[in-house]
Every structure is written in structure tokens, then in C-alpha cells.
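Onboarding guide, step 5: your first structure request.
Type a short instruction followed by the sequence, for example:

Predict the 3D structure of this protein.
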Amino acid sequence: MKSRPSKILSTDTDGNLSAHIETPNLMIRSIQEDDLGHLIGLMGDERVMQFVGAGGARDSDRIGKLHRDLINLWKDGKPISGFMVFKKDSGDFAGMACLEEVKKDGAPKAGEAEVMLYFRPDFWGQGYGKEVGKAFLESLLGMMKEGVPMEIAGSPITKVVATAHPGNEGSIKLQKSLGFNEVGIEDKLFTTPTGEKELRPRVLFELDLQRLLDAPRRAASPSRGTVTLEEVGKENSGQEYTGRK
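The system replies with C-alpha cells like these:
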């Protein structure tokens, strides 16, 4: 089902779906044809990709295919795709955010999406990951509240997941600050950039969107409405990663 325009989504002059989100410091928009160079610079950087999948810089052919796939999703009216991130004051390219299907045995899991964030090293350690992640998730919630059919495998998205390598302490801290719950750790088989198979651990996180959409506050403060990302993040920020579960 194609998504209809909202405060975040619109249709460009060619009739393709597009998105635009602004934060205090950043501008986030749907990926475009002329973003391939940005993507190659980002995903071709060993430092950026160290903890992604099996690690290692991606080659230009692989990145080009990903770019084309993300563009086609927007052309098909599906915002479960890629978003480019730029500094508002300078226009500099900062990174990318992706919302992807979660697959099991090659098929998408109904109502479940994964969020992934990539930033150029120049933008690490400045709080941009949280700024983008918070805006990204709140925009997703906003579109759903507006009635935009954000669906995967025919079911509305009710769960967002994220993963992090156990050695990526910054990513683990970020997920918890955004309200994700750590639910365990698994070993997953990845294909390296050279085509070899490698088993790598990853910490698993989940965020219950349904709770944020309609869960009432506890009786102690019934007038405050629904639970927010900010509140859930504060709850989870005190959780510490304790290793394998």
C-alpha cells in the first residue's frame, strides 16, 4: 500500500514520494539520485563500517546497488527506506538513517522494522545520533498518528528493533537513550566484503511503538497523557549492558 502525503511526506514534481524532517541542527530528507557520492564516501569508510555486519568498507558496486534499491522504494511510495542527514548551517553531509524490513528466512516479519544510523567520523561525539534518532522515531509515530499506512508485510509497524556490536559502547548507549530495551544478544552469520562468512555477536534492542501510541500513564499521573520517547529513554538509560543473555 502506498503512503499518502503527510506533514513529513510529500510528492515531488515527478510524482515520487519524498520526506523532509528538520531538527535544531540537522536536515533529514529522503535519499535522491545525486546522493550516490555521499553514500560511497560514507559506507566506503572502514571506520564507519567497522561494527556494521561483518565489518569492512563496502565496495562501490555494492553501495551502488543499495543506493538504487533505496531510490526505488521511494519511487514505489514506500517510506521504509533511506534518509540522508545534513548540517543545517553548512549543508555538509553528516550521515544516513535507514528504516528497513526485518527478515526471517528471507521473508519480512509483519509489523517489524529496524532502524540503522550511520555518521561520518567528523560528526561523531556531538550528539547528532540522538538528535536524528529521536526525530526519526517521533516522525514515524507522527505519521502513524496521522493515519499514514506505515506497514510491513501487510501489518502496521508496532515494533522497531536495533542492533549493536558488543564493542560499540556508543551505539549501545544511544539505543537506550532513545527508549530501546535491551532484549539479548545473538551470534549472526554475515558475509564479509571479501565474500567470506563470519559469525559476529550483536546486542538486540526493541522499542514498542504501540506503547508510545496509546499506552496511558500510570494512575499516579493520569493527566500527562501517553508515554513519550524522552520518558522511556530516561527509564532505559540506567540499564547497563551486562554481556550475553
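Each response can be followed by summary notes, for example: The first helix runs from residue 36 to 43.
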